[in-house]
Design brief:
single chain, about 150 residues, alpha+beta, Immunoglobulin-like, 2 domains, 5-stranded mixed β-sheet, 1 helix, elongated, binds copper (II) ion
Length: about 150
């Protein structure tokens, strides 16, 4: 084997090591997780809000033509909310006004976002992906209580 081939193999091997380290570092140290695609997850049999503890909630949202389930979500101010979002039919949007949150509901996939709601009040949920005839009526509401 000539010396340039050996160097190329050494560089490629080193890069693979760097990439593997970057993936493992982000997955375990920085806890960056890739949304899983589990359309048959039992938590998505119906849309629901689950209380994990006093200030931590999990919301399982199912988007479908032309509403969200659950459509009205409520929890106290200061809550950390893990939003898990999926769709049963086409791609929908999930934008929370006043929170700068803009998610995409993909059929068969789960989109996850953790949001902290510090301020009490009402936050509208709107679909911002054109999804058909009644797209403009696809709305929801989050109420953050005192
Ligand atoms: Cu829509």
């Amino acid at each position: 084997m000539n010396k340039y081939e050996q160097r190329a193999i050494m560089v490629a091997g080193s890069l693979m090591g760097v990439f593997l380290f970057a993936i493992l570092y982000n997955a375990f140290s920085r806890k960056i997780d890739v949304p899983s695609c589990t359309p048959f997850n039992t938590k998505f049999e119906k849309g629901q809000v689950k209380k994990v503890d006093d200030n931590h909630y999990e919301v399982y949202v199912i988007a479908h033509m032309w509403s969200y389930e659950p459509g009205d979500i409520s929890f106290p101010a200061g809550s950390t909310v893990d939003i898990y979002l999926t769709s049963t039919d086409v791609v929908h949007g999930f934008e929370i006004t006043r929170k700068d949150i803009n998610l995409m509901a993909v059929p068969g996939g789960i989109t996850k976002k953790t949001v902290v709601f510090d301020q009490p009040g009402k936050y509208n949920i709107v679909c911002n992906e054109y999804c058909g005839y009644n797209h403009q009526n696809m709305l929801g509401e989050i109420t953050v209580t005192y």
